[in-house]
TrEMBL record:
Protein name, entry field: YjgP/YjgQ family permease
GO-annotated biological processes: lipopolysaccharide transport
Biological classification of the source: Bacteria, Pseudomonadati, Pseudomonadota, Alphaproteobacteria, Hyphomicrobiales
Location in or out of the cell: Cell membrane
Record keywords, A-Z: Cell membrane, Membrane, Transmembrane, Transmembrane helix
Membrane-protein topology: Multi-pass membrane protein
Length: 404
Protein backbone atom coordinates (compact mmCIF):
# COMPACT_ATOMS: atom_id res chain seq x y z
CA UNK A 1 0.00 0.00 0.00
CA UNK A 2 2.84 2.35 0.89
CA UNK A 3 4.51 1.69 -2.49
CA UNK A 4 1.25 2.52 -4.27
CA UNK A 5 1.05 5.84 -2.45
CA UNK A 6 4.65 6.67 -3.27
CA UNK A 7 5.80 6.67 0.36
CA UNK A 8 9.40 6.13 1.28
CA UNK A 9 10.51 3.45 3.70
CA UNK A 10 10.96 5.94 6.56
CA UNK A 11 7.53 7.49 6.00
CA UNK A 12 5.85 4.08 5.93
CA UNK A 13 7.65 3.11 9.13
CA UNK A 14 6.59 6.28 10.98
CA UNK A 15 2.98 5.89 9.83
CA UNK A 16 2.95 2.24 10.91
CA UNK A 17 4.18 3.25 14.37
CA UNK A 18 1.43 5.87 14.64
CA UNK A 19 -1.54 4.01 13.15
CA UNK A 20 -1.61 1.01 15.48
CA UNK A 21 -1.87 2.97 18.77
CA UNK A 22 -4.18 5.46 17.06
CA UNK A 23 -6.71 2.79 16.12
CA UNK A 24 -6.36 1.22 19.56
CA UNK A 25 -7.02 4.56 21.24
CA UNK A 26 -9.99 5.23 18.97
CA UNK A 27 -11.49 1.88 19.90
CA UNK A 28 -11.00 2.48 23.63
CA UNK A 29 -12.33 6.05 23.57
CA UNK A 30 -15.35 5.12 21.45
CA UNK A 31 -16.12 2.15 23.70
CA UNK A 32 -15.87 4.34 26.80
CA UNK A 33 -18.11 7.03 25.32
CA UNK A 34 -20.68 4.52 24.06
CA UNK A 35 -20.79 2.33 27.15
CA UNK A 36 -22.32 4.95 29.41
CA UNK A 37 -24.90 5.87 26.77
CA UNK A 38 -25.71 2.21 26.04
CA UNK A 39 -26.46 1.56 29.71
CA UNK A 40 -28.85 4.50 29.78
CA UNK A 41 -30.49 3.38 26.53
CA UNK A 42 -31.04 -0.15 27.84
CA UNK A 43 -32.72 1.26 30.95
CA UNK A 44 -34.80 3.65 28.83
CA UNK A 45 -35.95 0.94 26.42
CA UNK A 46 -36.76 -1.49 29.23
CA UNK A 47 -38.75 1.14 31.10
CA UNK A 48 -40.70 2.06 27.98
CA UNK A 49 -41.36 -1.58 27.16
CA UNK A 50 -39.54 -1.29 23.83
CA UNK A 51 -37.47 -4.13 22.32
CA UNK A 52 -34.05 -3.97 23.92
CA UNK A 53 -32.38 -5.03 20.65
CA UNK A 54 -33.03 -1.46 19.42
CA UNK A 55 -30.00 -0.47 21.49
CA UNK A 56 -27.77 -1.81 18.69
CA UNK A 57 -29.37 0.44 16.06
CA UNK A 58 -29.27 3.42 18.42
CA UNK A 59 -25.62 2.79 19.32
CA UNK A 60 -24.62 2.46 15.67
CA UNK A 61 -26.10 5.88 14.95
CA UNK A 62 -24.16 7.38 17.86
CA UNK A 63 -20.77 6.26 16.49
CA UNK A 64 -20.33 9.14 13.96
CA UNK A 65 -21.13 11.70 16.66
CA UNK A 66 -18.61 10.28 19.14
CA UNK A 67 -16.02 9.65 16.41
CA UNK A 68 -15.74 13.40 15.92
CA UNK A 69 -14.63 13.72 19.56
CA UNK A 70 -12.46 10.60 19.62
CA UNK A 71 -10.50 11.28 16.42
CA UNK A 72 -8.27 14.12 17.76
CA UNK A 73 -7.49 12.20 20.96
CA UNK A 74 -6.66 8.99 19.10
CA UNK A 75 -4.51 10.80 16.53
CA UNK A 76 -2.60 12.70 19.21
CA UNK A 77 -1.93 9.51 21.15
CA UNK A 78 -0.76 7.75 17.98
CA UNK A 79 1.69 10.55 17.16
CA UNK A 80 3.01 10.70 20.72
CA UNK A 81 3.44 6.94 20.87
CA UNK A 82 5.28 6.79 17.52
CA UNK A 83 7.77 9.57 18.26
CA UNK A 84 8.30 8.42 21.85
CA UNK A 85 9.15 4.96 20.60
CA UNK A 86 11.66 6.39 18.13
CA UNK A 87 13.24 8.47 20.90
CA UNK A 88 13.42 5.70 23.51
CA UNK A 89 14.90 3.21 21.06
CA UNK A 90 17.62 5.65 19.96
CA UNK A 91 16.21 5.35 16.43
CA UNK A 92 15.56 9.07 16.29
CA UNK A 93 19.18 9.83 17.15
CA UNK A 94 20.37 7.45 14.43
CA UNK A 95 18.06 9.12 11.90
CA UNK A 96 19.29 12.58 12.83
CA UNK A 97 22.92 11.41 12.66
CA UNK A 98 22.33 10.04 9.15
CA UNK A 99 20.99 13.38 7.94
CA UNK A 100 17.24 12.85 8.40
CA UNK A 101 15.62 16.01 9.74
CA UNK A 102 12.76 16.36 12.20
CA UNK A 103 10.49 17.88 9.51
CA UNK A 104 11.12 14.77 7.38
CA UNK A 105 9.97 12.55 10.24
CA UNK A 106 6.94 14.78 10.86
CA UNK A 107 5.87 15.14 7.24
CA UNK A 108 4.00 11.79 6.96
CA UNK A 109 2.21 12.54 10.24
CA UNK A 110 1.04 15.91 8.92
CA UNK A 111 -0.13 14.15 5.75
CA UNK A 112 -2.03 11.67 7.92
CA UNK A 113 -3.57 14.62 9.77
CA UNK A 114 -4.75 16.06 6.44
CA UNK A 115 -6.37 12.72 5.53
CA UNK A 116 -8.04 12.57 8.94
CA UNK A 117 -9.25 16.16 8.49
CA UNK A 118 -11.04 15.08 5.31
CA UNK A 119 -12.46 12.07 7.16
CA UNK A 120 -13.58 14.32 10.01
CA UNK A 121 -15.33 16.72 7.62
CA UNK A 122 -17.08 13.77 5.96
CA UNK A 123 -18.13 12.28 9.30
CA UNK A 124 -19.10 15.41 11.24
CA UNK A 125 -20.27 17.39 8.22
CA UNK A 126 -22.37 14.81 6.40
CA UNK A 127 -22.67 11.42 8.16
CA UNK A 128 -23.25 12.58 11.75
CA UNK A 129 -26.23 14.87 10.91
CA UNK A 130 -27.98 12.00 9.12
CA UNK A 131 -27.21 9.51 11.89
CA UNK A 132 -28.37 12.01 14.51
CA UNK A 133 -31.75 12.24 12.77
CA UNK A 134 -31.92 8.45 12.41
CA UNK A 135 -31.15 8.10 16.13
CA UNK A 136 -34.00 10.43 17.06
CA UNK A 137 -36.33 8.69 14.60
CA UNK A 138 -35.61 5.29 16.15
CA UNK A 139 -35.93 6.74 19.64
CA UNK A 140 -39.28 8.29 18.72
CA UNK A 141 -40.73 5.10 17.27
CA UNK A 142 -39.07 2.82 19.81
CA UNK A 143 -39.58 4.76 23.04
CA UNK A 144 -42.12 7.54 22.70
CA UNK A 145 -44.47 5.14 20.90
CA UNK A 146 -42.73 2.01 22.06
CA UNK A 147 -45.36 -0.06 23.79
CA UNK A 148 -46.26 -2.96 21.49
CA UNK A 149 -48.56 -4.83 23.89
CA UNK A 150 -45.67 -6.62 25.55
CA UNK A 151 -45.12 -6.11 29.27
CA UNK A 152 -42.12 -7.60 31.11
CA UNK A 153 -42.86 -8.82 34.63
CA UNK A 154 -42.12 -6.65 37.68
CA UNK A 155 -41.15 -3.68 35.49
CA UNK A 156 -42.72 -0.23 35.56
CA UNK A 157 -43.62 0.76 31.99
CA UNK A 158 -44.28 4.39 31.05
CA UNK A 159 -46.75 3.61 28.31
CA UNK A 160 -48.49 6.83 27.28
CA UNK A 161 -49.56 10.26 28.61
CA UNK A 162 -48.11 9.66 32.09
CA UNK A 163 -49.62 6.18 32.32
CA UNK A 164 -47.49 3.75 34.36
CA UNK A 165 -48.20 0.01 34.22
CA UNK A 166 -46.66 -2.96 35.98
CA UNK A 167 -47.61 -6.59 36.60
CA UNK A 168 -46.37 -9.17 39.10
CA UNK A 169 -46.40 -11.99 36.55
CA UNK A 170 -46.53 -12.12 32.75
CA UNK A 171 -46.88 -15.15 30.49
CA UNK A 172 -44.45 -15.96 27.68
CA UNK A 173 -46.43 -13.96 25.13
CA UNK A 174 -46.35 -10.84 27.28
CA UNK A 175 -50.13 -10.48 26.83
CA UNK A 176 -51.60 -12.23 29.89
CA UNK A 177 -50.90 -10.23 33.07
CA UNK A 178 -51.38 -11.15 36.72
CA UNK A 179 -51.36 -8.67 39.60
CA UNK A 180 -51.79 -5.53 37.50
CA UNK A 181 -51.06 -2.06 38.90
CA UNK A 182 -51.78 1.13 36.89
CA UNK A 183 -51.18 4.72 37.91
CA UNK A 184 -52.07 7.89 35.98
CA UNK A 185 -53.68 11.31 36.30
CA UNK A 186 -57.05 12.36 34.90
CA UNK A 187 -57.84 16.10 34.98
CA UNK A 188 -55.39 16.63 37.80
CA UNK A 189 -56.75 13.70 39.84
CA UNK A 190 -54.48 10.83 40.84
CA UNK A 191 -55.97 7.53 39.68
CA UNK A 192 -54.73 4.11 40.80
CA UNK A 193 -56.14 0.93 39.26
CA UNK A 194 -55.39 -2.59 40.45
CA UNK A 195 -56.75 -5.87 39.17
CA UNK A 196 -56.25 -9.58 39.65
CA UNK A 197 -55.47 -10.12 35.96
CA UNK A 198 -55.45 -8.37 32.63
CA UNK A 199 -55.20 -9.06 28.90
CA UNK A 200 -53.54 -7.02 26.18
CA UNK A 201 -55.60 -7.36 23.00
CA UNK A 202 -56.41 -5.71 19.71
CA UNK A 203 -59.35 -3.33 19.47
CA UNK A 204 -62.30 -4.50 17.35
CA UNK A 205 -61.01 -2.53 14.33
CA UNK A 206 -57.58 -4.20 14.85
CA UNK A 207 -55.91 -0.80 14.58
CA UNK A 208 -54.93 -0.29 18.22
CA UNK A 209 -54.14 -2.16 21.44
CA UNK A 210 -56.30 -2.04 24.54
CA UNK A 211 -55.96 -3.43 28.07
CA UNK A 212 -58.87 -5.48 29.46
CA UNK A 213 -58.79 -5.84 33.26
CA UNK A 214 -60.58 -8.44 35.42
CA UNK A 215 -61.65 -8.22 39.09
CA UNK A 216 -60.12 -4.98 40.26
CA UNK A 217 -60.51 -1.63 41.97
CA UNK A 218 -60.20 1.98 40.69
CA UNK A 219 -59.25 4.55 43.34
CA UNK A 220 -59.50 8.28 42.60
CA UNK A 221 -57.97 10.72 45.07
CA UNK A 222 -59.99 13.97 45.01
CA UNK A 223 -58.28 15.29 48.11
CA UNK A 224 -61.26 14.47 50.32
CA UNK A 225 -61.16 12.52 53.56
CA UNK A 226 -62.01 9.30 51.72
CA UNK A 227 -61.00 8.69 48.10
CA UNK A 228 -63.53 7.49 45.52
CA UNK A 229 -63.46 3.70 45.08
CA UNK A 230 -64.97 1.69 42.21
CA UNK A 231 -64.92 -2.11 42.08
CA UNK A 232 -65.34 -3.90 38.76
CA UNK A 233 -65.53 -7.40 37.35
CA UNK A 234 -64.31 -6.36 33.89
CA UNK A 235 -62.96 -3.02 32.67
CA UNK A 236 -61.39 -1.91 29.39
CA UNK A 237 -58.83 0.83 29.99
CA UNK A 238 -59.96 3.98 28.21
CA UNK A 239 -56.47 4.64 26.81
CA UNK A 240 -55.60 2.94 23.52
CA UNK A 241 -52.14 2.40 22.10
CA UNK A 242 -51.20 2.70 18.44
CA UNK A 243 -49.61 -0.32 16.79
CA UNK A 244 -47.35 1.87 14.68
CA UNK A 245 -45.68 5.15 15.51
CA UNK A 246 -46.85 8.17 13.49
CA UNK A 247 -44.38 9.49 10.89
CA UNK A 248 -41.47 11.32 12.47
CA UNK A 249 -40.92 14.97 11.67
CA UNK A 250 -38.81 15.84 8.60
CA UNK A 251 -35.04 16.06 9.07
CA UNK A 252 -33.75 19.53 9.90
CA UNK A 253 -35.54 20.13 13.17
CA UNK A 254 -32.37 21.85 14.39
CA UNK A 255 -29.01 22.87 12.97
CA UNK A 256 -27.24 19.70 14.15
CA UNK A 257 -29.30 17.62 11.72
CA UNK A 258 -28.15 19.66 8.71
CA UNK A 259 -25.14 18.74 6.58
CA UNK A 260 -22.45 21.32 5.82
CA UNK A 261 -23.92 22.11 2.41
CA UNK A 262 -27.40 22.46 3.93
CA UNK A 263 -26.04 24.73 6.65
CA UNK A 264 -24.39 26.91 4.01
CA UNK A 265 -27.65 27.11 2.05
CA UNK A 266 -29.69 27.90 5.14
CA UNK A 267 -27.24 30.63 6.16
CA UNK A 268 -28.00 32.34 2.84
CA UNK A 269 -31.75 31.68 2.92
CA UNK A 270 -34.29 34.38 3.63
CA UNK A 271 -35.46 33.68 6.24
CA UNK A 272 -33.25 30.81 7.52
CA UNK A 273 -34.86 27.74 9.09
CA UNK A 274 -33.07 28.43 12.39
CA UNK A 275 -31.57 31.58 13.92
CA UNK A 276 -28.59 32.68 11.81
CA UNK A 277 -26.18 32.73 14.76
CA UNK A 278 -26.99 29.08 15.57
CA UNK A 279 -26.40 28.00 11.96
CA UNK A 280 -23.10 29.89 11.80
CA UNK A 281 -21.89 28.49 15.11
CA UNK A 282 -22.57 24.92 13.98
CA UNK A 283 -20.99 25.43 10.53
CA UNK A 284 -17.77 27.05 11.75
CA UNK A 285 -17.42 24.64 14.68
CA UNK A 286 -17.36 21.60 12.39
CA UNK A 287 -14.85 23.20 10.01
CA UNK A 288 -12.51 24.41 12.74
CA UNK A 289 -12.41 21.09 14.61
CA UNK A 290 -11.55 19.23 11.42
CA UNK A 291 -8.89 21.68 10.26
CA UNK A 292 -7.09 21.47 13.62
CA UNK A 293 -6.04 17.85 12.97
CA UNK A 294 -3.08 18.59 10.61
CA UNK A 295 -1.60 20.90 13.27
CA UNK A 296 -1.63 18.25 16.01
CA UNK A 297 1.71 16.69 14.92
CA UNK A 298 3.35 20.13 15.13
CA UNK A 299 2.29 20.27 18.78
CA UNK A 300 2.82 16.63 19.75
CA UNK A 301 6.13 15.82 17.99
CA UNK A 302 8.27 18.36 19.94
CA UNK A 303 6.74 17.22 23.24
CA UNK A 304 7.41 13.53 22.57
CA UNK A 305 11.11 13.81 21.62
CA UNK A 306 12.82 13.28 24.97
CA UNK A 307 14.86 10.56 26.65
CA UNK A 308 14.18 11.59 30.24
CA UNK A 309 11.34 9.67 31.88
CA UNK A 310 10.16 12.51 34.13
CA UNK A 311 10.20 14.99 31.28
CA UNK A 312 8.34 12.56 29.03
CA UNK A 313 5.51 12.21 31.54
CA UNK A 314 5.43 15.96 32.06
CA UNK A 315 5.35 16.61 28.32
CA UNK A 316 2.53 14.10 27.87
CA UNK A 317 0.54 15.87 30.59
CA UNK A 318 1.30 19.25 29.01
CA UNK A 319 0.12 18.03 25.59
CA UNK A 320 -3.11 16.73 27.14
CA UNK A 321 -3.68 20.03 28.97
CA UNK A 322 -3.07 22.08 25.82
CA UNK A 323 -5.52 19.97 23.82
CA UNK A 324 -8.14 20.21 26.57
CA UNK A 325 -7.69 23.98 26.73
CA UNK A 326 -8.12 24.23 22.96
CA UNK A 327 -11.21 22.00 23.05
CA UNK A 328 -12.74 24.02 25.90
CA UNK A 329 -11.94 27.28 24.10
CA UNK A 330 -13.84 26.01 21.08
CA UNK A 331 -16.73 24.91 23.30
CA UNK A 332 -16.93 28.33 24.92
CA UNK A 333 -16.62 30.07 21.57
CA UNK A 334 -19.36 27.89 20.09
CA UNK A 335 -21.63 28.65 23.04
CA UNK A 336 -21.06 32.41 22.69
CA UNK A 337 -21.66 32.24 18.93
CA UNK A 338 -24.74 30.05 19.38
CA UNK A 339 -26.26 32.56 21.80
CA UNK A 340 -25.36 35.48 19.56
CA UNK A 341 -22.94 37.05 22.03
CA UNK A 342 -20.02 36.95 19.57
CA UNK A 343 -19.62 36.42 15.82
CA UNK A 344 -18.88 32.79 14.99
CA UNK A 345 -15.95 33.83 12.78
CA UNK A 346 -14.31 35.44 15.82
CA UNK A 347 -15.38 33.12 18.63
CA UNK A 348 -14.24 29.96 16.82
CA UNK A 349 -11.52 30.97 14.39
CA UNK A 350 -9.48 33.01 16.89
CA UNK A 351 -8.85 29.95 19.17
CA UNK A 352 -8.01 27.91 16.07
CA UNK A 353 -5.52 30.50 14.79
CA UNK A 354 -3.89 30.75 18.22
CA UNK A 355 -3.63 26.96 18.47
CA UNK A 356 -2.19 26.65 14.96
CA UNK A 357 0.27 29.50 15.56
CA UNK A 358 1.43 28.12 18.90
CA UNK A 359 1.86 24.59 17.50
CA UNK A 360 3.84 25.89 14.51
CA UNK A 361 6.03 28.09 16.72
CA UNK A 362 6.69 25.26 19.16
CA UNK A 363 7.67 22.89 16.34
CA UNK A 364 10.06 25.19 14.51
CA UNK A 365 11.75 26.38 17.72
CA UNK A 366 12.53 22.79 18.75
CA UNK A 367 13.96 21.29 15.55
CA UNK A 368 17.55 22.35 16.32
CA UNK A 369 17.59 20.69 19.74
CA UNK A 370 15.04 17.85 19.76
CA UNK A 371 13.40 17.43 23.13
CA UNK A 372 14.27 20.96 24.26
CA UNK A 373 11.12 23.04 23.97
CA UNK A 374 9.69 26.06 25.70
CA UNK A 375 7.12 23.77 27.32
CA UNK A 376 9.73 21.31 28.64
CA UNK A 377 11.83 24.20 29.99
CA UNK A 378 8.76 25.62 31.73
CA UNK A 379 8.05 22.18 33.22
CA UNK A 380 11.66 21.95 34.44
CA UNK A 381 11.43 25.37 36.08
CA UNK A 382 8.16 24.45 37.76
CA UNK A 383 9.66 21.17 38.97
CA UNK A 384 12.71 22.95 40.37
CA UNK A 385 10.51 25.52 42.11
CA UNK A 386 8.37 22.77 43.67
CA UNK A 387 11.48 20.88 44.82
CA UNK A 388 13.01 24.05 46.29
CA UNK A 389 9.76 24.83 48.10
CA UNK A 390 9.67 21.27 49.43
CA UNK A 391 13.26 21.50 50.69
CA UNK A 392 12.57 24.80 52.44
CA UNK A 393 9.42 23.44 54.03
CA UNK A 394 11.21 20.32 55.26
CA UNK A 395 14.12 22.45 56.54
CA UNK A 396 11.81 24.70 58.54
CA UNK A 397 9.98 21.69 59.96
CA UNK A 398 13.26 20.11 61.07
CA UNK A 399 14.44 23.38 62.62
CA UNK A 400 11.23 23.75 64.63
CA UNK A 401 11.45 20.11 65.70
CA UNK A 402 15.05 20.58 66.87
CA UNK A 403 14.13 23.75 68.76
CA UNK A 404 11.18 22.06 70.35
Amino acid sequence: MGHLLGLRLLERYVLRLALKPMFGALAVVLAALLLERVLRLVDLLATAGAPVFLVFALSANLVPHYLGFALPAGFALGVFSAISRLSLGAELEAMLASGVSIPSVTRPLIALGCVLAVVSIAVTGFIAPLSRYAYRDILNSGVTYAWRAHAPAATFISAKDGLTITADEVDKTGRQLTGVFIQNRENGVEVVTTSVSGTLELTPDRAQIQLRLHNGVVVRDYGAARPSTLRFQELVLDKKFALEAPPFRPRGGNERELTLTELWSEMSAQPPSSPLNELQAEFHSRIVRSLSLPFLPLLIVPLSMTLRRNTRFGNAAAAAVLMILFHNALQIGETFAHKGRAPAAVALWVPFILFAAFSTWLFFTSTDRPGDTAVSRAIDRMSEAVQALGRRTIGRFRTRTAQG
